[in-house]
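R.M. (postdoc): so does anyone remember the format we settled on? I'll just put the structure tokens first.
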């Protein structure tokens, strides 16, 4: 059995949907009340299908996602056996303060009928080869579970724990915008400031993706959710701080969401006093959205700064892995 890996194209969309759907045993309707009755795949709307695993579950949704991925620079690698697409891996070349340059291994999936045949390993090794050819010395990934199958797979290929991503929460309060603070909108065309700013709040993903989706939210969310989002830049002597707030809540008869997520990019080197002011501004903006609690995620080295700003750790950290290619 020979596994070949190549760069995917739009012609692979139907095959990629088949790969993703192979992992779903039962399909369900979805509404603002959550998961509904079981249904056949053909009975579901495209958005209902995505609720089972994202845009890869429906050809029309994946076509829309593909255009978005191209804008971000995401490269889809596909694995074939005897000409049949049996797996895929999305990769993205990234830059991140303080991590430097690296290749991110993002979405990885192998057809349910072709697992344990080396397909995932072949995809990962091809990604590593592409990183070497581009002169990147590190590959980073967030496994689904560190002790689960994905974590064990990556560790068997030489990956080791790089850092933890912690979840923190803080009450919003009603402190107000500090006097003299200047706020400005962030243009949708502005690129992520990865060379000058560190993403201290918002480690759901890497800066490139988090920034893009913050400025360009999924307008399809209103089918089931109300979406609230706010973007602003805070001008300070030490530089500009970029803030994104988001919150979603179900439609139809539900109370307004009181918890939102904070994403914040700070200029480096960090000025602690200005950072605390940026957090106060973020909380004030959150109160305008009717939020009572802000949640965020950050890596190990930024936990102390957030705790000084009133955030408290909650839940278990997610472990990210890395491999040096030197």
């Amino acid at each position: 059995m020979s596994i070949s890996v190549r760069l995917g194209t739009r012609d692979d969309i139907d095959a990629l949907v088949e790969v993703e759907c192979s992992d779903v045993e039962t399909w369900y309707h979805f509404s603002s009340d959550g998961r509904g009755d079981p249904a056949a795949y053909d009975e579901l709307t495209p958005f209902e299908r995505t609720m089972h695993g994202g845009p890869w579950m429906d050809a029309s949704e994946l076509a829309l996602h593909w255009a978005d991925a191209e804008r971000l620079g995401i490269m889809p690698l596909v694995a074939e056996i005897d000409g049949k697409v049996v797996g895929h891996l999305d990769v993205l070349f990234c830059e991140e303060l303080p991590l430097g340059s690296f290749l991110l291994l993002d979405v990885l999936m192998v057809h349910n009928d072709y697992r344990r045949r080396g397909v995932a390993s072949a995809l990962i090794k091809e990604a590593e080869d592409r990183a070497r050819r581009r002169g990147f010395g590190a590959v980073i990934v967030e496994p689904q579970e560190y002790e689960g199958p994905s974590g064990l797979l990556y560790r068997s290929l030489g990956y080791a724990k790089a850092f933890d991503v912690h979840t923190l929460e803080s009450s919003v309060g009603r402190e107000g915008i500090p006097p003299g603070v200047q706020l400005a909108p962030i243009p949708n065309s502005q690129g992520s400031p990865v060379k000058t700013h560190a993403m201290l709040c918002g480690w759901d993903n890497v800066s490139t993706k988090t920034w893009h989706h913050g400025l360009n939210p999924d307008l399809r969310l209103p089918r089931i959710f109300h979406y609230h989002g706010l973007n602003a830049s805070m001008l300070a002597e030490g530089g500009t701080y970029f803030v994104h707030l988001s919150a979603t809540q179900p439609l139809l008869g539900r109370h307004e969401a009181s918890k939102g997520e904070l994403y914040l990019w700070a200029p480096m080197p960090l000025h602690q006093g200005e950072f605390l002011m940026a957090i106060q501004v973020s909380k004030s903006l959150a109160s305008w959205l009717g939020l009572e609690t802000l949640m965020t995620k950050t890596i190990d080295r930024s936990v102390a700064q957030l705790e000084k700003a009133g955030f408290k750790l909650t839940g278990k950290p997610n472990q990210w892995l890395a491999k040096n290619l030197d």
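R.M.: ...and that's the designed sequence above, right after the tokens. Also worth knowing: The first helix runs from residue 13 to 21. The mean pLDDT is 92.
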